[in-house]
Amino acid sequence: MTDPLLSVENLRTYFYTPYGVVKAVNGVNFELESGKALGIIGESGSGKTVTGLSIMRLIFPPGKILKGSRIMFQGEDLLLKPENEMRSVRGNRISMVFQDPMTSLNPVFTIGEQLTRVIQTHQDLTKKEAIEKAITLLKEVGISDPEKRIKNYPHQFSGGMRQRVLIAMAISCHPNLIIADEPTTALDVTTQAKIIELLKDLQRKIGTSLIFITHDLALISEIVSEVIVMYCGMILERGEVDELLSEPLHPYTEGLLHSLPDVNIKGDLQPIEGTIPSPINPPSGCKFHPRCKHATVECREDVPEFKKIRSDRYVSCILY
Ligand code: SF4
Q: I want to staple 66 with a disulfide (CB 3.0 to 4.6 A). Which of 10, 12, 59, 133 is the partner?
C-alpha cells in the first residue's frame, strides 16, 4: 500500500485568549490519498476551518499548533519545516480557496495584476508569459473573453466570477492538494452548482486532491467520496459519502441530515436542539451530550472512543 498524500495525526490547535483556552482542533486524525476528495462537515465553530488553516500552517498568535501534532504531506512533516520552505509549499503544492472572494482579492489591483503576481511568485516566467498563463487559466475556469477581463478590477466581476478567479489562482501551479473552505457559501444556488462542477472538473483534469470544507451536507455528496464530521474540534464520524448520508451512525450526523431541506429525505425538518457549546468551556465526556436525546450518565463522563465499525466507517459514540 502506498503512503497517503496527507496524513493528519493528533492535530491539536489551541487559541490562548484572555477568556480561556479555545481548543479549536483537539486530536484530529485523518488521511487523504492522492487524487481523492475528502469533505469536512460541521456547524460553525466545529474546527473545520482551523483544520484547513493548520494544514497550511496559517495559524498565528494567540493560536498555536501543539507539540505532538503531525501533518505529514508527501512524506514530510509540515510542522517541522522552516517558514521559508513552507512559503513555497503554499501555492506550489497546497492551495487554499476561501469563502469570501471579495476579501481575498485586492480591490485596487486588476485581476490580471493579481493573477500574474501569484504565477510569478511560484514560477520562473517573464511578465508576458505570466499574462499568457493567466489568460489560459481564466479560460480554464470558464471566464469568457479573458484577454479583456484580465484588465478588470474585482468589483467588475460577480461573486461567482470572483470565486472562479480565486480557483484560477489556486490551480495556477498545479498543486497536489486544494483546500476549499466554504467556497460557495457566499453564492446563489445556481452559481454554487457551477462552482462545484468546475472544482470537480478541475480535480479530474489535473488530478489534484481536494479537501472540501462546508457546513452544507447537501453539497458534499456532489464532490467528495469520503466525509468526516467535526464537532467541538473533534471528529465524530467518518465514512464513504453515500453510505454516511444514507445511514448516519452518530446522532449529530443524523441531526445534521434531518435539519437539511432536501426533497430526497422524507419527514419534517428537525433542527438539532440547542446550540454548539462554548469553545472555552465545552461539556465533559461526549461533547454532543447536552444536545443528544440518547445521552446517558456515561456520555457525560467519558469521551467515547473513535471506533472502527466496519471497513472505512468510524464513529465516536457509545451506541456503537
Ligand atoms: Fe449521544 Fe452518548 Fe453517543 Fe454522545 S456518546 S452521541 S451523548 S449517545
A: 12
